[in-house]
Amino acid sequence: MDAEAFRRTIEKLRPGFAERTERCERERRVSAESAKELIESGVIRALQPKRFGGLETEPVDFFEGMSRIGEVCASTAWVTGVLAVHSWQMALFSLEAQEEVWKDDPTALISSSYAPTGKIEVVPGGYRVSGRWSFSSGCQNSTWAFLGGVVPDGRKTWGGLPDIRTFLLPISDYRIEDTWHTAGMVGTGSHDIVVDGAFVPEHRTLPFANLVTNECEGWDANPGPLFRAPFAAVFVNCLAAPAIGNARGALERFVEKSRAKVRGSKGKDPLDPPAQVIVAESVADLDAAVLQRRHNMIEMMDYARRGEAIPIERRARYRWDAARAACLSADVCSRLFDAGGGHGIFLDDPNQRSFRDARVMAVHAYTHRDKSARVYGRATLGYDFKDYLL
């Protein structure tokens, strides 16, 4: 599927996602119908290796597609982007692990919770994993999970950082606990994952250090340039894309409602004076965020195609620009909500959902404005800076 076919597929799916937006929030998950459409169309497998039936879509095309979905349903776009990126990361694991996940079911999906909150015990042949992990978006649509953990007394890795890894577990080794009762992004179903002493073999782990030092075993099986992109740039953009789409959708609704007031008025301006400025500032902010990210992803893939290592400063910039895009999008939604007046606070106004969703997306650990700014600041000002999420 080329870029144009991918865009057409997204446009075909959007009306169904829009129709199910309220249901997605009410049921606190992406519906079975939407999940089926995403799988059968290939959209959710866009970043999966071709050897397992994936598309290996260019990141700039994929993330623009996620923004288009985000215009009608932020939760559906978020889950689609996150699960698709997990398939991308799965391509970095050993081929043995990839075949365990996809050989019998190439449409299998993987959720995640990367924070190393669990207990990891070294045992013969692998690790014993226990604990609780929160914020696992799309876990009800998945049959595998990536969970973060620190290997105790593990080898010191890049920059002397601890041996933090992603551990891959099948759904038979964990349970999902219903904990996702939130103010926004309700439809992501980001419940808790609980594990009670599951064994994870060595080949189903991936050290975060390897993502920075470019020592991924999966590259032998998946040599395409897509899989040479830096983890943080790919992952954070899967969070920024629905945020931008969510804000763009809110802006389009605000503009259309305002135009209707103007068309229906005679003489006196029916809009509060700040409305014109709000529209102008919002359009500029969203366009700037889109263009910056597009530039970054094209540059990133140029590095990958040339087989060159991407400098740490550039990796940090990619992460910062994506996080800033999510925050700018939240700023836009806040302006529009404030300008919506008394009618905008009712639950039948979709922009109140956009406002709530935007605020939740902007407080994610990887999209937090100050945290991501400090990452870039330290990297570009010459500190001896080490961070796995680059």
Structural class: alpha+beta
Helix and strand sequence: HHHHHHEEEEEEEEHHHHHH
**CATH class bucket of the largest domain:** Mainly Alpha
C-alpha Rg (nearest Å): 21 Å
The domain tally reads: 3
| Mean pLDDT level | 93
According to DSSP, the number of beta strands is 8
The CATH topology of the largest domain is given as Butyryl-CoA Dehydrogenase, subunit A, domain 3
How many alpha or pi helices? 12
Structure overview:
- The protein has 390 residues and is α+β, with helices and mostly antiparallel strands.
- The chain folds into three domains: 3-102, Butyryl-Coa Dehydrogenase, subunit A, domain 1 (Orthogonal Bundle); 110-213, Butyryl-CoA Dehydrogenase, subunit A, domain 2 (Beta Barrel); 229-380, Butyryl-CoA Dehydrogenase, subunit A, domain 3 (Up-down Bundle).
- It is 50% helix and 13% strand.
- It has helices at 3-19, 21-27, 32-41, 59-70, 74-90, 95-102, 208-213, 231-263, 274-306, 312-339, 350-362, 369-380, and strands at residues 110-113, 119-123, 126-136, 144-150, 164-170, 175-177, 191-201, 205-207.
- The radius of gyration is 21 Å and the shape is globular.
- The protein starts with a helix and ends in a 10-residue tail after the last helix.
- The model has no long low-confidence stretch (mean pLDDT 93).
